[in-house]
Structures are given as C-alpha cells and as structure tokens.
Amino acid sequence: MFINCHSYFSFKYGTMSVKELVDQAKTKGAKTMALTDINCTAGVYDFLKTASQAGIKPVIGIDFRNGIEQKYIGLAKNHHGFYEMNHHLSLYKRKKTPFPDRAPQWQNAAIIYPFPCTIQNLDKNEYLGIHPNQIKKALRSPWAKHKDQWVLLQPVTFYSQRSFNIHRLLRCIDLNILLSKLPEKEQGDISDQFYSIGELAERCDAQYWLLQNTQKLLNSCDFFHDYQAVKNKQRIFGNEEKDFQTLREESYKGARLRYGLNLSQDQTERIEKELNIIKKKEFVSYFLINYDIVSYARKRGFYYVGRGSGANSIVAYCLFITDVDPIELDLYFERFINLHRSSPPDFDIDFSWKDRDQIIQYIFEKYNTKRREHVSLLATHNTFQVNSAIRELGKVFGLPKTDIEALINYMAKPVNYFPDSIGKLVLKYSQLIHGMPNHLSIHAGGILISEHPIHYYTATDLPPKGFPITHFDMHIAEEIGFAKFDILSQRGLGHIRDSLDIIQENQGIVVDIHQMTTFKQDKKIKDLLRKGHTIGAFYVESPAMRMLLAKLEVDEYLGLVAASSIIRPGVARSGMMREYILRHRNPSLRKSRSHPILYELMPETYGIMVYQEDVIKVAHHFAGLSFDEADVLRRGMSGKFRSKEEFQRVKDSFFKKSLEKGRERIVTSEIWHQVESFAGYSFAKGHSASFAVESYQSLYLKAHFPKEFMVGVINNFGGFYKTEFYIRELMSTGANVQLPHINESDQLTRIKGNTVYLGFIHLKYLQKEVCHNILKNRKLEGDFIDLKDFISRIPINLEQLLILIRIDAFRFVDKSKQALLWEAHFLLNKQKNGSVHQHLFKQLVFKEIKIPKLEANDTRQDILDQLEILEFPLEDPFFLLKENHPPSIKAKNIASYAGKHIQVLGYLVAIKYTRTIKGETMNFGTFLDREGYWIDTVHFPPIVKKSPLTGRGIYLLEGKVTEEFNFHTLEVSSCSRLPYWNASEEK
Questions:
Q1: Which of 364, 421, 490, 555 has the fewest CB atoms found within 10 Å of its own CB?
Q2: DSSP secondary structure of 284-332
C-alpha cells in the first residue's frame, strides 16, 4: 500500500535503515511496500531479502528528484523495468542534468507523477499520485475524470518526532545552512510515516477505491520472482565448452613454461583437480578474464603482483596471474575455491599506481559494448562517524570552531568540560546519525564485469575519477553472486617498475625481475635479510619487521614467508611470535616445546600455527573434516559467519568428527582452543608468499643496484619512512646526492652515473608552472648561463626565484648565494607583480651590477634554508645543534654496552604509538646517529609522560641497552630534544 518509502540510502534525507523501515512496516500490518530511495538503488538487495523474511512483498523503485523536487516515481514491474529505470537514472546523473518533467515511455516500469501534474495525458503505465492532504483538491480538478489512474501517494520517511528531527538536521548538512535557516520546501512533512489500513482509509477520507488502485498497482510489480541469478561475464570465446578448452590449453602451456616440458604426476593431478572444480563452480570465465588482464599488462610491460588466496591455485600460477608455486609451499586450493563455498573468489592484482588507471581503462574498453555497459567499479558507502557528525552538526547549530573541537575532545576524554544545552544536543544527534550513509565513494579496486548489462542490477554514478561506480557495495556484490576483479595499486610496485627503467637508462642493463629461483639463492639478498637492512624494500622495511628479521636471522624464502605472517597481531599478541623465534634459533627446542600433534602437522613452522591454512590443516588432519568443511571453519573464524548458530554447528562438527577418529576429548578441547584463539587474526600463506616474492624482487634491486633502486623509491613517494630517510639511505650507498640544480634536475629525482640530482618536485613552494617552464625552455634553448639569462627566458616572480637561489640551484654561477639574492632583488623588485616581461627584458642591456661586500656564508643557514624549502636537511642535521653536544657513544657500538646505561644522540626517524593492557600510551622510536646507523628505542608509559617525544629533531637519549635474540634496543629512561642554532641569537 506504500509506493514511496525512503531508507537512509536517500542520502541526507531518509532516516531509517532498510531493516528499521521494514520493521516499521510490519508493525503497521503492511503486506506490500515499495522501496523508492531518492536517486539511489543502494538498498535494493537488502530490502528484497529483509522484506521477504518479514513476510512483506517487496517492490522496488526509484524516486526521481531534482534536489528535493519530486518529478516522478518509477516502480519496476519486472527485471527489465529495473534496467529501464537504472539506465535512465544513470544517464542523467552522469550528465549532471536535471530530470525532465516526463519520464521515458518505459515498457516494464510504472510511473507515478505527484499531483498537481503538468502532464496532459497519461499512458497505460502512468499514474497520478495523490497525497492524502490533496484528495479534495484533486476531486475538484480536471483529473477527476481519470480516477482509474489515481494511486495513493503516502510517502514514508520518518517514524517519530525524533526521526523527523534527524531528517531536518540532515537536510541542513546537505544544504550547508543553519537549522534556523532551513525552509519548509527543503524538507519533508512529519506525516510521511507508515499507517495501518484503517488509518490510511481515514486519511483517504473514505475514498477506498484509491487504496484498491494502489494495491492493484503494487500487485502488478513482481521483480522478486522475476529476479535472475547474477553472473559474471560468461562465454568469453563463444560458448562454455570453448572457454573451458581454452583455459585448459593455456594452463598447460603456462605449466610447461613454469615447470619444464615434462610435468610431474603431482603437477598434472593438481591442475586437473583445480580445472574440474573451476568448471563445476562456473568460474572458468573469471579465470580467463584475469588471464586476459595480466596478459595485457605483460604486453604493455606493466609490472604487477597477484596475491591473496588466489596464490593457492596452480592454474593461477600457470596463467601467470600469481608468481607463487602452491606445490612448493603446500598451499591448499580449497582455501581459494571449494565446492562448499557459496561466496565467489577474488584475485588481488596489484599494479604500480602509474599503470593502474590504464589497466582499468582497458577493462572498460574490452568488456563494454557499443550499446550496453557491462563494467563498473564497486562503490563503498561513506558513513557519518562521530567526530565528523559533531563537526557537521556543530555548524548546523551555529557553534564556533573552538566549541566544536571542545565537544570532540569531550567525547574522547570527558573531563574538565561541561557541554551546554546546545552542545548536549549536538552530542545526542551525532550518536543518532553515527553510521548512517553520507554518500557513495569508490572501492579501493573492485570491478564488476556482468553477463547482462550492469544496469540490470544497479544504477551507476560517475565520480570525478571518470569510471562509473555501482550503488551497492562489495558485501552486496558477494551476496548476489558477483565475483569482483580487484585491480589495486601500491607504491612498492612503482619502486620496482621505475627502478628497472632507471637501471637501464643509467647502466644500460636490462634486468629480468622474475628470476625468483635465482633470487632465492642470492648471497647479497641473504645478507640483507639476516641483518634486517631492508629500507625501501616492500613489506619488510618497517622497524618492527627489521627487528623481526634480525632476531630470526632469516636468509631464505620460506623463512621470509613465515616472518610476513608471524608479525601479524594474532601471532604476535598471543606470544607465539617470540616462541617461533625461540624455536627457529634453537632447533633442539622445536619438538620439546610443541604439542606433539601440532608438531606432526606443522613441522615447517615448528608446531606453531602461523597461517590460515594451518587452521585448515588441523581441522582436516586432526579432526577429520574435509578440506571444504575445514575452509568453512576457517572463514567462520575470520569473522565471516553470519550467525552464532552457524559457528556452533561447525564447532560441533569439529568435536564430533574428532571423537569419531578416536581423539581424546581433553586433547580435542585443547587443540580447539588454540585454533579458536589464533584463527581470527591469521594470515593466508599464499598472501604472505606473494608479499615475499615482491620483497625478494625489491631486495634484489637493493642489493645489486642500490643507487638506482633508492632513486626509484624516492620518485614514488611511498613507504614506511619520509622521503628524507630514503635520501639518507641513498647517500649511504656512496651516491653523490645533490640539491636541485637549474641545468641538471628534472621534475623527479634523476641519477647520472654516480651523481643524483634531487627533483624540483621536492621544493615545497615552487609552482608547477615554473618547473614546467624551466624544463621546457631548457630543452628548446639549452642550459642557462647565469641569473640574467634565466630571468630573460623564464617568467618568474621574485618570491619563486628566491626559492631557487636559497636552495642553491644556481651554484653553476660563479657567485655566492648572498650575491645572487642581492642581484635577484635588484633585477626584479621593481617589476610589476614581481615578474618580468621576457620579450622586454631580452631587449635590455644591463650594466654590470656592483655588489657590495657581503658577509661569509654560514653552513648552518644553508641547512635552515633546506629545512624550510625541502622540509628536511640534505646536509648533516647535527651541524645545527646550538651547543657542543654532550658525549655519546656511536650507534654501531651499542651491542658492546648490553645491560649498561648509556647516552646517545639520535635524529628522530619515526615513532610508533601503542597502548599497554592498562590502556596507557607507550612508544617505540627509531633514530639515526650521525654516522647513519639505526637506533631502536622503547619508551614505557612513565617515560612517555615524563620525557615525551616532541616532534622532529635531535634527541639526547639515555637508557639501558637490552638484548633479545642478538637484537639490541635502548630502553629509554629519559630523552630531550636538543635546541637548534638560531642566527638571530648571535647578533
């Protein structure tokens, strides 16, 4: 009976979740209802499921509005009607043009125009929606002759006064206005609620036929029973048999490239087993499309890494989707796909951030057709968080910024502040709108490729990025059967990709980065791993990872795979990370400290569960669950069960089958406890293995081409550390690192032999246009001769020119920096807007400028200039210390002071903030000493309170040197930041 219901997916208008909407309908005895969110279809699939479970027939539609002005409502009579509406909505949202007064002549969707209506004649699928308040007026209008096309338009948006209040606040947020300025025409009416049949009849003023017309219309809509099962793109090569034949052929072709011409029985059986399951689960096209994507990437020379549970597939390995051999690592295919798994699989394929958009463009061009769209990015639903809600509501209530920030701080720590009545309202309603969707955003990398046009399933938006996005998110996509394609980006791949180009350009060497068999035996890589010298290398460069590698003294691939997983929270917090290190370093303890059953199942990891696959292994070999059932258990323990009942069924099965195998109940309980406490935080072995492959590739480049590799890292601006510390790592390789140079530098950092010129991009305040003009002019007219020549060729104002002079970019000129600054002021300070008109300047002949005697340059001032312009010093920052620093030991000698108290000077690199079990703040610090050696520190809560780290700079650190597994840490007892030199204090 309700044809115009709004959930909170009517962004910043609706107030109820889909479940709340259905629950409200049920309390009023509704048997049929239509969800018609405003210009959005995000709630459709939740609504179909929730309404059906509540015994309510779901009808789906769209409320087409220009702003708040309702133009018409569409109701899908079937699946084709949903397509018609989605296509129409997407078209106008994409063009960002208003909806017309009249809807298209849809064949499979009903259209309701709100009264009063400017349309002259209604077609058979068109209706006039009469609000209860307008019935008398409508009966006196010319439309009274067409009552057979009248339906009751009773909107539903609220359920209470508080709900209406929330609506008004959301409207103010949307319009960015004060609550007191909200016009009535920009909000709904408080009567837009559910009513019982009796209440509706009363509101209709006894016009029962209006209710009958409405019910008849709703009865004619039957989308749910017409709903087609979602399928990804099928029939890649014409038919399913041809697709499967192609997948088989390409798999065996790749297998012979991977393993050699003569495949072993294990390899052949594994391929056949996987192909059989892939065919049964109808994922043939999914593999073929991923194969097509990576094949295109290889043709274009795009470097990529396939990771995630897809690494458990030998077919994926043979198709070069991943570089992890699942046989070598004993990875179960069932972790990726099994016959019991209802949800679709997905590959995570990482590309360089520079290449990713080109890959996405290829997918859209390849799998869309000229007439229909089949490809879309996945959306996420950006929701109101408490702090953002407080900020928005604070503005709505007209609070000053200081009051808003005080409320936010109050939520974090409610002491010494007492909100007034307005503040309490803000806090109250911020909690009420917390979690409501605010707007659509773009999923990190999910792409859908559908067999039927994508608008059969969703409308699409077109965000600024330029690719359409769905209205539903990844969770709904999975529920309705879509297998998404994850095309992701990461800076680590950019490091590798750019490094290969830089090596070829600087040394003329072409590196094959896929020689993993060779890399695993490389002595230089082994040495870097054992010592934890991994700065710049993907996934293994953080202080925590460097510490772990040094403690483990890992020097081989499987050890690195394990390290990538045991650093995860589940293993680390349980104490098993330390136990793993202990057993790894002392083989005699491996068996004695392990549970005998677990040691028998996991000798590779010394009886310690390290990977998600270990859960599968224990469930299968210990409890007797099939691999498929074991993966159901693994997924459940990862938080993917929908209910406690489902989890309990799997637990009961674990115990039942264990006892049937003759296991003792006490042993079963002990093993179950270990599985249960570990599984929720575990890491897929295939995921770790994929990361380890990329780490090895990075480490190979770092070991053999350290200078070019670090330039690649610097140019990608990504990693655990700030750019400064990658530059310092580059300097430690012996490279001659130079400040930006007018005649040598490019936009990005470049290496020329052993000399590295930092790029103009590092100059914080230099305008892009100035940089562009310098590079363009230099290419056309050659190097610059002096400052006058530069000014005559480049349009630049005094402020921009001073940046270049202060950073010493004109050091090729035989004049001091002070002289150049004086000359720049003389040449430009009288020019209009501080800029020279080049065509006039070139005609001028300047007399030689007489420069007065200037004071000598101070290196410390150069460092301060670098700090201001680069945001880091290229020179030694220790020169800046105000006074002679106190005596301190060198970081490279710390090991010889184990157990003793020392003091050391350290330049702060990074701080990790964490909390103790009691909730107190503690820090882990990373510093560099003057010689470039690393200092790792721990600051317990009392020290954090007494001697906190207060930002970048050089610290005097005092404390006790502790040692664990031959890794030394300074347990800080006090620290203080030392003051820098200030030229003004000497005058």
A1: 421
A2: HHHHHHHHHHHHHHHHHT--EEEEGGGGG-HHHHHTTS----TTTTT--
